[in-house]
Amino acid sequence: MASFLYRLGSTAYRRSWPFLAFWLILLLAVGGLAGAFAQKPSSTFTIPGLDSVVTMEKMQEIFPAAEDPTNAPTGNIAIKAPDGATLTDPAVNAEVNEMLAEVRDTGLLSNPETIVDPVMASEGLQAQMVPEMEAQGMPPEKIAADVATVSPLSRDETTGIVSVRFDEPSTMDVPADDIATVTDILDRYNEGDLTVMYNGNTFGATSGEINMTSEIIGLGVAALVLIITFGSVVAAGMPLISAIIGVGIGFLGIQLTTAVSDDISDMTPVLATMIGLAVGIDYALFIVSRFRTELIKATGANDLEPKDLAERLRNMDKETRAHAMGMAVGTAGSAVIFAGLTVLIALAALSIINIPFLTAMALGAAATVALAVLIALTFLPALVGLLGTRVFAARVPGVKAPDPEDDHPTMGLRWVRRVRQRPVAHLLVGVILLGLLAIPAANMRLAMPTDGTATPGTPPRIAHEITADAFGPGRDAPMIALLDLADVDPQERPMVMGAGVEKFIATDGVVNAQVVGTTDTLDAAQILITPEFGATNPRTSETLEDLRATDVGVPFGITGATAIFDDISDRLREVLLPYVGIVLALAFLVLLLVFRSIWVPLIAALGFGLSVAATFGITVAIFQEGWLGIIGDPQPLLSFLPIMLIGLVFGLAMDYQVFLVTRMREGWSHGKTAGNATSNGFKHGARVVTAAALIMISVFAAFMAQDMVFIKTMGFALAVAVALDAFVVRMMIIPATMFLLDERAWWIPRWLDRILPKVDVEGEGLSDVRAA
Q1: Looking at the domain assignment, is residue 533 inside a domain?
Q2: How many other C-beta atoms are found inside a 10 Å radius of the C-beta of residue 657?
Q3: Share of the chain above pLDDT 90, in %
Q4: Strand, helix or coil at 395?
């Protein structure tokens, strides 16, 4: 493989334009297709096979008018009267009707005749429901409770809810301009005495718009780190340009995929951009750094500052420079491939869980990582070749950027010598520190995103709070029980339904339960269950569990957005450990091939476990528990954050393991003692790994500027995970363990060594090429 990569790198350097043209044409082609065919990403989440999803599908068969509550193009308008007034006051009521008339006149909503003010709707509801329930012999208190539970007007008549439905098949199909047309009307009336807010599937989808601030901040910090690393503005720009090309193709490709798949969520391109920028810059950084080292070797000097290197480069022939690039791609490029492979394994393994939206997110990010690898191996050498002798031009005054290959002690060498002197102490400090940071993770709570977890101050969040204050927290968390009465005697079906309602009401945490729909033959019934608490409250999950355990005498299932989201959270918790096992097993095999050692892959995986546990602890403490007051709105972590975080962080952690430990392996295989090989390899790899980690941290941390709660939390968690893994695990625990194991670190059974294929990661097979 090293020989092939050598030829690829040197050829790309010599013949730049074909390689550059290929990627640029691909970028333009994908961009054009995406602009023509891309659709709006989905903002819904579901998993086939869940009890709640199966119940929903069955209910839609029996009751064709029933819609998927997670994808229906519906929304709610929450209206609150001015202080000291009610919605029944003539002036207030007139203003509400004026607003709703404008909403109806847009022509964008289905059944506009049903869009009436809450006072009129409440009166009509009572006129319809009360006589029917009185005829059934219901007691007055039950009638009052049932009416209040579904009434669009609060008991104190200060708050009302108007439900609307856009005239489209699903939320995804509603054009953003149509939503804006309606919300502009509502925003205008909100500026007056009325409080007018909106939430629900369609309106809630507008609260998490993606902006480019994060990418700009991340690229800015990355540029600064690269300038310090290379001492040259031009050289610093190489990784940035190649990463932007890769992310651009990946982002546009994901947008294009929306034309053929409904599983692409609005978070998929953001995650792909986040991981693509980080690894794209890092992989290019490793190759450019090695190219610089090869150029210095070609000059015959051991220590060249950027100014000296730029001057000597002008006198170096193209063939020598092409050889240096070939050596860089043949050595560092091999490590890039295996580092990228571990990321791909961790991401692609998420598809095994069979969660469509999670699979789409993982595969989108994996495709972007694969592009980053390919571009680092082909586009980057071609771009450097195009610049020729100017690649290290535009020197930055005052930045020396020493090369770790020279004979001077570097900061990395001084640090690893300290670790070598007291390996036990450094190992214990690292393990204890990460263990303490992991303690808050024991209280981790998971929930799916709802209007109640939207960004504070946004219309969906305010509408949710208005509704909860006026109608109770459970109003936005309804559940539907579908009773199967087919095997019940037709004469007894009403009594069985009544008994079921009473048992549901008697369940702890239930405010009310009532029949809201039956078939003509009464062989099936829908029972609306209103919980006492909100959708993300753990008490609601307990209530759902108790409801499902209730014996009502007939088979039944419970569905609704609350039940579906709760089931998704449970499924993600169930698959977390199996997923971790699959990833660890596959990655262990890859690292076994790379390092030909049992202990090195094992301690790499154990170190990852410590860093990710500590990351969960810090994230729970700050985002869920509100420690330090950094987050003003603590919420449960999103259900798929842990599994996505593990997938992303594991791949990145193995990146650092590969780039750092391969140099140790190279020294040991060339005859150095295990201890000296560890020190020397750390010296060579620490500087570039430090730069790579700082770039990843800055890119991920910048995504905290996004409004989407999941992206904000994921950006923070990834930044913390990279910091802990790079600087505590890879640069303290790993070398300490390697020193303690000494020669045993590279032990592998002979029979296993014989059957494993030979993988030349550090380009040992290029020794003849180098000599020539």
Answers
A1: no
A2: 29
A3: 41
A4: strand
Q: How many distinct structural domains can be found in the chain?
A: 2
Residues 726 and 767 occupy one common structural domain: yes
Q: The domain containing residue 236 runs over which residues?
A: 2-20+211-400+410-447+567-771
Give residue-wise pLDDT tens across range 752-764: 888 888 776 655 6
Instruction: Please indicate, yes or no, whether residues 244 and 194 belong to a single structural domain of this protein.
Output: no
Structural domain includes residue 580: yes
By C-alpha distance, which of 372, 172, 380, 375 is closest to 272? Answer: 372
Of the pLDDT bands very low, low, confident and very high (cuts 50, 70, 90), residue 188 is: very high
Give the number of other CB atoms < 10 A from CB of residue 127: 9
Asked whether 362 and 647 are in contact (CB, 8 A), the reply is yes
Q: Which helix (H) or strand (E) holds 307?
A: helix 306-314
pLDDT tens sequence across 550-606: 999 899 999 998 999 899 888 888 888 888 888 778 778 878 887 888 999 889 888
- Which two three-digit tokens encode residue 139? 């007691």
**Token pair recorded at residue 187:** 């925003």
Give CA–CA dist 544/242, Å, rounded: 50
Residue 157 shares a structural domain with residue 268: no
β-bridge pairing 479-484 and 524-531: antiparallel
Yes or no: say if 58 and 482 are a contact pair by the CB < 8 Å rule: yes
Q: Clarify whether residues 6 and 132 are in a common domain.
A: no
Same domain, 192 and 204: yes
CB 747 within 8 A of CB 599: yes
- Residue 524 has phi, psi (to 5 degrees) of -155, 150
β-strand 446-447 against 159-165: which pairing, if any? unpaired
**Token reading at 271:** 């995650």
Which pair of structure tokens corresponds to residue 74? 């519906």
574 and 612 part of one domain: yes
Q: Is 560 contained in some domain?
A: no
Of 210, 237, 257, which residue sits at a domain end? 210
Q: Which residue has the tokens 């990661």?
A: 761
Say whether both 77 and 9 belong to one domain.
no
CA dihedral sign of residues 541, 543, 548, 554: negative
pLDDT tens-digit readout, 511-524: 999 999 999 999 99
Q: Give the H/E segment covering residue 421.
A: helix 411-421
Tokens 């570039």 locate to 688
pLDDT digits (tens, 9 = 90+) for 215-269: 788 778 888 888 888 878 888 889 999 999 999 999 999 988 888 777 777 778 8
Instruction: Check: CB of residue 69 under 8 Å from CB of residue 560.
Output: yes
| Total number of residues shown for the chain | 772
**Does the residue 38 lie in any domain?**
no
Q: Which of 153, 178, 210 is where one domain is finished?
A: 210
Pair of tokens at residue 531: 């919980």
Output phi, psi for 76, to 5 deg.
-125, 140
Q: What is the distance between the terminal CA atoms of the chain, rounded to a whole angstrom?
A: 19
Q: What are phi and psi of 232, to 5 degrees?
A: -145, 130
> Position 521: which residue type?
T
Helices (H), 114-175: 118-135, 140-150
Record the tokens describing residue 730, joined without a space. 């890879």
**Residue 202 sits in the same domain as residue 229:** no
C-alpha distances (whole Å) from 634 to each of 31, 146, 199, 420 are 39, 34, 20, 42
CA distance 473 to 457: 18
E strand map for 413-523: 446-447, 479-484, 510-518
